[in-house]
Amino acid sequence: MSVWAYLAATLGVGVGACVRFSLGWLDRPKTFPWPTILANLLGSALLGAVLALSDGGALSPGVTFALGTGVAGGLSTFSSLAVDALVLWRDGRRTAATAYLAGTLVLGLASAAAGFAVADALA
């Protein structure tokens, strides 16, 4: 992997993180972690698409690294998922916490599959 690929991935992380931060403004005041769900679903769809395009030879390893590890990695966030679920649980909203965790997992898998399918069909 070239130095340029690492630089591109680093910049991609910044882009993904800025998008994730911007999504947080969609839910003010914060009542449920919708921005985190949206960020994780978008990141999953992007990573699925990157995988399909990479498998099909449409993306070089460097671009795959920059988009997958960089942008998708910066956009999605496991730590926020964990903390949001903990806060819901601690606040006595156990059903919401459980639905949040299960829903994110199921919808994340579906988003990754959809991203893969769309990119595969377009490639």
From TrEMBL:
This protein's record includes keyword Ion transport = yes
Q: Does the keyword Nucleotidyltransferase apply?
A: no
The entry's keywords: Cell membrane, Ion channel, Ion transport, Membrane, Metal-binding, Sodium, Transmembrane, Transmembrane helix, Transport
Q: How is its activity regulated?
A: Na(+) is not transported, but it plays an essential structural role and its presence is essential for fluoride channel function.
Q: Name one GO cellular component term.
A: plasma membrane
TM segments? 6-26, 38-59, 65-87, 99-119
User: Any coiled-coil ranges, and where?
Assistant: none
Q: Which Pfam families match?
A: CRCB (PF02537)
Record's InterPro entries?
A: FluC
Q: Which reaction does it catalyse?
A: fluoride(in) = fluoride(out)
Localization in the cell: Cell membrane
How does it sit in the bilayer? Multi-pass membrane protein
Per UniProt, Na(+) binds at: G73, S76
Tell me where on the tree of life, at the top rank, the source sits: Bacteria
Q: Which GO terms describe its molecular function?
A: fluoride channel activity; metal ion binding
The biological processes this protein is annotated with in GO are:
cellular detoxification of fluoride
What is the recorded function of this protein according to its Swiss-Prot or TrEMBL entry?
Fluoride-specific ion channel. Important for reducing fluoride concentration in the cell, thus reducing its toxicity.
HAMAP family named among the record's database cross-references: FluC
The family this protein is said to belong to = Belongs to the fluoride channel Fluc/FEX (TC 1.A.43) family.
| Name assigned to this protein | Fluoride-specific ion channel FluC
Q: Read off the lineage from the record.
A: Bacteria, Bacillati, Actinomycetota, Actinomycetes, Micrococcales
